[in-house]
Amino acid sequence: MTPLISSFPKKHALVACFLAVPLMSFLVTEPQGPKASSFASLAVTTIPIPRLADVAPASDGDVGGRSVDLEPIPETPPPPALPEGSVERREIVKGGDSLARIFKRLSLPPTDLHHILQTGEAGERLKRIFPGQELLFVTSSNHEVLRLTYSPSRLERVQFERGPEGFTSDQIVREPERVTSYRHGTIDQSLFVATHRLGLDDDVAMRLAQIFQWDIDFVLDIRKGDEFYLLFEEHYIDDEFIGVGRILAAEFVNQGETFKAILYTNANGDVNYYSPDGESMRKAFLRAPVQFTRISSNFNPRRLHPIHKRVMPHRGIDYAAPAGTPVLAAGDGRVKTASRNNASGNFMVVQHGEQFQTKYLHLSKFARGIGAGKKVRQGQVIGYVGATGWATAPHLHYEFLVNGHHQNPRTVSLPKADPIQPAERVRFTTYATPLLALLDSYKEQVDVASIQ
Length: 452
Prior knowledge:
The protein is α+β, with helices and mostly antiparallel strands. The protein has helices spanning 10-20, 99-105, 110-117, 121-125, 191-197, 202-212, 425-450; strands spanning 51-52, 68-69, 87-92, 134-139, 145-153, 156-163, 166-173, 177-186, 227-237, 240-254, 257-265, 271-274, 294-297, 317-320, 326-328, 333-341, 345-352, 356-366, 375-376, 381-385, 395-402, 405-407. The strands form four sheets. Strands 13, 14, 15, 16, 17, 18, 19, 20, 21 and 22 form a ten-stranded antiparallel β-sheet that branches.
């Protein structure tokens, strides 16, 4: 078989080598903070490397674009110099503050506030200030507002300037410096505990679980000793860490089975995760359309009913969850029924094309705007967990039907979402291979360190 790298344009092959080989020389270190245990067996130090740029298609169907962007991210230009005799005043929004209250506190003219709020979308944003955000005023000697700068976050700045014909506004979004980083963890108790031990917050754990949710049930399938490998962006402003960006590539080993995912943006701008062979990580349906705490009753054609004390088929799965927990549409479709009866309580039936149907029983209520005939998208909130009908406690009873026949939602073979299209195959491969090479290079570091 011809090696995959040989089919690449020469410059992309060189880039893959450039990214992968030198990384082997970096040292593997333990994470900072409390001593690492089996929750997170190893973490690799953050290594600044060139940022992988998007691969853009060239003309005539050829693959083009830059493989590596070595250009520094330009700094945001500083605001104009302060006018002569002006005063700069910095104000941090307090609990219960409004812009009107802040203007009054600083003895600033309410007419200036009125004109600032009339500057369109930027002015509207000032009506949604939150405690902890910063306002920077530049005022004249007679207390007129010359400039107001609102900073909703470290990356955003909304600026208002007094001019000859009134106030003008400008919204500036600053691009952070992106550094590609790597983490490896081994699970002992849960994914959340493992990511915490690596210095990553719950949001990263949630995003990792969402990437692999169609293949792994993170409530029931996770086992001690499962591992994950992450290649992701860290964002910096002026050399200060401000947060974690996108997960670029990931690998999860669950009960000995390995799953890999790569973030890819296609030529139309659609962003999704794909396996190395171009299959979508998404499936056409979610395994579990609710964040549940446990399964209170499994799919069982011979179940003894807890209320009626006789054998009655249980044609779905009961997911126990607190009342009010959002219930999601398992797949794209149209609501066939949203009604109520004595047995099912508030229930919904969603039709997915000609072949598939899903049912959601015992809801406390339907989501706003959801009713018969409405189109729904996978992951959209369609209702909320309840205990209506013949329910002994809050839970979602979920059924999955194929051609009118009930199937076990946990074991039924789910149809896949669309894979990489043939026209995008070369472009995807060109983009994915350097990422996979980088991920494998880091994994080799972990393996070497583990046997030393």
